[in-house]
Design a protein that fits this description.
Helix content: over 70%
Radius of gyration: 21 Å
Shape: globular
Structural class: mainly alpha
Order of helices and strands: HHHHHHHHHHHHHH
Length: 426
């Protein structure tokens, strides 16, 4: 890669990584304060509400965030404006429908009582988050990830500070969720201001002419988004059904920390994605992608092994720092340590998945995700009733291994296998 490309990707990686780690660090801090203030049960209801809202958001997004990022990276300002208008209309309609469905049917029926109230508060974050995903795609497509990171971090900081103040004055998880929604609204205003200043404000006329093509192309991404969210959250939903809010809180405390460690490679790969999409459209794009893969793989593997090893050693100190001496602290440490061996598999399947995305192989990613998610859900349904969060953590580890196996095999077959000419050169 040329120096300018390296510098751009490096800058965007640092921006995304710093922003995401900061956002999740704020979230972990807030989780710790919730556990101390309203107990592990209150933390469980909070995490359940965000889980249900996250699954709904994956449906609402309809795969449009990744699709739009790829198209914005290839398009001029005029095309971007029309496409953005269509994306925002589609996502707004889907978000409103989801809010009505969650509050009118799903939450009261499946999660009655205090859980339903928490989910109701979280659901109102669907509309601003849907808008934010489309607006952020413009910034990502133009490889200005530092701006989206700053906006996201600022909004989350406002939400966390508001939540902490409310907890200090007798609030509970519902008030923290209200601050979460307010932070998302703040981000919507900021992102709207940025795209307007750039001259790419959404064009509302003519958007309907693009809807059919947009939906057809975004469907595979939508499938991956929904399946990926179910893949990450089915265990928590089943824990809620079988073992109550305390079990959700204990497992969620360990799982969220493990997810933070998984953000490091995704930030680099998300920063690299627009460049990969552009390169693939060029004449020798596949050969460049193969050379890049061979350079990135050893460094990524060495990095993740170091992260997992250090985290395993200091796990008790990390859990105590975040959550204090909560009941079940030893359980959280054990769950976190059980999840850590999955990290190398997570890092490597993300690398293969991004390569497949960039080369228009998203349907193959979807097929792999569906296969592993079905197995994950079946095993969790069979084992969680008896072994609770311990089986959930073990199944998460097995699922990461299986997903790497499928995506790695697919990437080798369709992208990474050298041509006869490359083989002779090597």
């Amino acid at each position: 890669m040329r120096n300018s490309t390296r510098n751009r990707i490096g800058k965007n990686t640092v921006a995304l990584l710093a922003g995401r780690i900061s956002v999740l660090a704020l979230g972990l801090w807030l989780n710790g304060q919730l556990a101390r203030t309203v107990g592990i049960e209150g933390l469980g209801r909070y995490l359940l509400a965000l889980t249900v809202e996250g699954i709904a958001l994956a449906v609402v997004n309809m795969g449009l965030n990744v699709f739009a990022t790829r198209e914005f990276a290839r398009s001029d300002a005029e095309v971007t404006r029309t496409l953005l208008g269509a994306v925002l209309v589609l996502k707004t309609a889907a978000a409103i429908f989801a809010i009505v469905l969650l509050n009118g049917l799903i939450a009261p029926l499946l999660f009655p009582g205090p859980r339903s109230l928490a989910i109701a508060w979280a659901s109102f974050g669907l509309l601003p988050q849907a808008m934010n995903g489309g607006l952020e795609a413009v910034l990502k497509g133009r490889q200005r990830m530092e701006m989206s990171s700053v906006i996201d971090l600022t909004a989350r900081l406002v939400a966390v500070v508001g939540g902490l103040i409310w907890l200090e004055h007798g609030g509970d998880e519902r008030h923290v969720l209200a601050c979460y929604v307010a932070g998302q609204l703040l981000a919507t205003l900021a992102l709207s201001g940025v795209v307007t200043a750039w001259g790419v404000a959404p064009r509302w006329r003519g958007w309907h002419s693009r809807v059919g093509a947009i939906v057809r192309n975004a469907i595979p991404f939508a499938g991956v988004d929904v399946v990926a969210m179910l893949y990450r959250r089915t265990d928590l939903l089943l824990l809620a059904a079988w073992h109550g809010d305390a079990a959700i809180g204990l497992y969620g405390a360990a799982y969220r920390l493990w997810e933070v460690l998984g953000l490091m490679p995704s930030s680099f790969l998300d920063a690299l994605f627009p460049e990969l999409a552009r390169r693939d459209a060029e004449g020798d794009g596949r050969a460049r992608l193969r050379r890049l893969y061979r350079r990135v793989l050893p460094a990524l593997l060495a990095f993740v092994l170091a992260v997992a090893t250090v985290s395993f050693i200091i796990a008790p100190q990390i859990i105590t720092l975040l959550y204090g001496q909560i009941p079940g602290r030893e359980v959280v440490v054990g769950l976190f340590r059980l999840l850590l061996p999955a990290l190398p598999f997570t890092y490597l399947y993300l690398l293969n998945g991004h390569m497949l995305y960039a080369t228009d192989n998203q349907r193959r990613v979807l097929a792999a995700m569906v296969t592993v998610t079905l197995g994950n859900a079946l095993l969790n349904a069979l084992l969680i009733p008896r072994w609770s969060y311990w089986s959930a953590a073990g199944i998460a580890l097995a699922s990461e291994i299986a997903l790497l196996g499928l995506l790695g095999t697919t990437a080798r077959r369709h992208i990474l296998k050298p041509t006869p000419l490359e083989t002779r050169i090597i």
